[in-house]
From TrEMBL:
It is an enzyme of class 5 (isomerase). It catalyses: chorismate = isochorismate. Residues 1-20 are annotated as: Disordered. Belongs to the isochorismate synthase family. Residues 1-19 have a biased composition (Low complexity). It comes from Nonomuraea aridisoli. Residues 151-399 form the Chorismate-utilising enzyme C-terminal domain. InterPro entries: ADC_synthase (IPR005801), Chorismate_C (IPR015890), IsoChor_synthase (IPR004561). Gene3D superfamilies: Anthranilate synthase. Keywords: Isomerase. This is isochorismate synthase.
């Protein structure tokens, strides 16, 4: 753990209302930019008042909650706003695999928020001095295979589909990685600006080098109310409006995709039901149309039965069948065996939490791990018994386009 302002001293936190800050992302300095933005609203943070590497293992969420209770609970808070997301806030990213290192929680020294028509600034200690530097372009970007080449990955998909047909499991989500190398260091702010502009409906995020724009809301907690947007079942966009419409209609009618979606909804329903006094899941999914793909989507709402924090709910839900599979344990074993890569934070929970346990966490899809001139990009899809490896590869390519656009414009 590192607590920049001293481990023994409670964090002195101050939240004050501010005028409309305009584009939140424009406030970010080049170093340690934290972000969670949708349709222009959200939070950006910079500086680090406290940071911790969460140890791997089955108890990692409980450990993180304990750490947050100590650091945020002990804070000396002067909060003139008293709204979800005011007062001290931590950003976090958890690895997909509970046994992997790399999960992190960070309490920024400054967080600028706009939510529900109000804006405020939270600072910890003296407001950190921002050294503004112009946003830089990374220049030409080239791509190389990550752990598996495209044909190797197709063979892995075929093996997984066979094991599903043989009855070992019902669904597994397989992913691959690409390594992007730029001419010059990658300025995360440029990626965030491009993602937020092109994918306003998605959650554009940046936490400790993990950057992306995910359409999938794992969980939002506002008091007792919770919401989730479950996605599974995908088709690339069409070449013209008629083709686009036909693809959407085919997706909606596809037994393979509807079954894939039902697995994801069932896993969310099963984990949320015991935590909730009421829970609503739609009978049928809707189509979510994004610039690169169309998804089957279900909006889930509920009311928590007791005082579970958003991180408690994240702990119960991760990994949903939208990123793991069904049954969960078998799917995780198959992913470890077949993918041949460390997913790091990809497909793991990413988001923020405040001292009252409110917050928003997404599933870190359409994302990349950025370091210097390099970025590891990730994309995958749900594999069923009748999956066609070439179609799954095309779907993953369409999903990679999000981060390729962020890097290249
Ligand atoms: C695994 C990914 O997407 C998941 C979320 C939405 C739709 C999915 C699908 O249709 O396969 C995946 O379950 C990814 O974007 O890398």
């Amino acid at each position: 753990m590192s607590v920049a302002l001293g481990t023994t001293r409670p964090l002195p936190v101050r939240t004050t209302p501010v005028g409309d800050p305009g584009n939140l992302l424009a406030s970010l300095p080049a170093t340690t930019p934290y972000a969670w933005i949708r349709n222009g609203d959200g939070l950006v943070g910079w500086g680090e008042a406290a940071r911790v590497a969460v140890p791997p293992g089955p108890g990692r969420f409980a450990w993180a909650r304990q750490w947050l209770a100590t650091v945020l609970g002990d804070a000396q808070v002067d909060d003139a706003v008293r709204h979800p997301g005011s007062g001290p806030v931590a950003f976090g990213s958890f690895t997909f695999d509970e046994n992997a290192h790399g999960s992190v929680l960070v309490v920024p020294r400054a967080v600028l928020t706009r939510r529900g028509g109000r804006a405020w600034l939270t600072t910890i200690g003296e407001a950190p001095v921002k050294t503004f530097s112009p946003i830089t372009d990374p220049g030409r970007v080239s791509y190389g295979d990550g752990s598996l080449s495209a044909p190797e990955w197709e063979r892995v998909v075929a093996r997984a589909a066979r094991r599903i047909r043989e009855g070992e499991l019902e669904k597994v989500v397989l992913a691959r990685d690409l390594v992007a190398t730029a001419e010059r260091p990658i300025d995360v702010r440029l990626l965030l600006m491009r993602l937020a502009r092109r994918y306003p409906e998605c959650y554009t995020f940046s936490v400790a080098g993990l950057v992306g724009a995910t359409p999938e809301l794992l969980i939002r907690r506002t008091g007792q109310e919770i919401e989730s947007l479950v996605l599974a079942g995908t088709t690339p966009r069409g070449s013209d409006p008629a083709d686009d419409f036909a693809r959407g209609a085919a997706l909606f009618a596809s037994p393979k995709d509807r079954h894939e979606h039902e697995c994801a909804i069932a896993s969310v329903r099963e984990t949320l039901a015991p935590l909730c006094s009421s829970l609503t899941t739609p009978d049928e999914p809707e189509l979510l149309v994004l610039p690169n793909v169309q998804h089957l989507a279900s909006h889930v709402t509920g009311r928590l039965a007791d005082g579970a924090s958003v991180l408690d709910v994240v702990a119960a839900m991760h990994p949903t069948a939208a990123v793991g599979g069904t049954p969960t344990r078998t799917a995780i074993e198959v992913i470890r065996e077949l993918e041949g890569m460390d997913r790091a934070g990809y497909a793991g929970p990413v988001g923020w939490i405040d001292a009252n346990g409110d917050g928003e966490w997404g599933i870190a899809l359409r994302s990349g791990l950025v370091q210097g001139r390099r970025a590891r990009l990730f994309a995958g899809g749900g594999i069923m018994g009748d999956s066609d490896p070439a179609a799954e590869l095309a779907e993953a390519q369409a999903k990679f386009r999000v981060m390729q656009y962020a890097l290249e414009g």
